[in-house]
Amino acid sequence: MLARAADKLTVAQLLLENSAWEDAASRAYYAAFHAISALLFASGKSYSSHAQLIGAFNRDFVKTQVFQRDFTAILTRLFEDRQSGDYDVFAAITEQEARRDVDDAQRIVESIQQYLANEPPTERGKKS
Known about the structure:
- The protein is mainly alpha-helical.
- Helix content is 73%, strand content 0%.
- The longest helix is centred in the C-terminal third of the chain and has 24 residues.
- The protein is globular.
């Protein structure tokens, strides 16, 4: 899942370079989504909906101050921009919004990678 997150982030950056703002925002969201999925999976949890996944991340990792509080607002914005970019015919993601989304997704992915790399396996829900 972390590899998938890194792949989505790479694609988001390529889309930025090619001025595909809506698609860059979409891939940025999915980079964060897959990183959070990996984090929750490592904790022995999985969820079927995006809302459940984001809610669980906020409850288990943001409210407990494992990750910064602004990750909640960032995830909400990433999700909304993805929805807008993928489904809203009249809305447009600007270059500035897309760049912010990709930067913020990178911050989330890197934070989760670092957290998982530093956590002992028993604390990640794995058997020793």
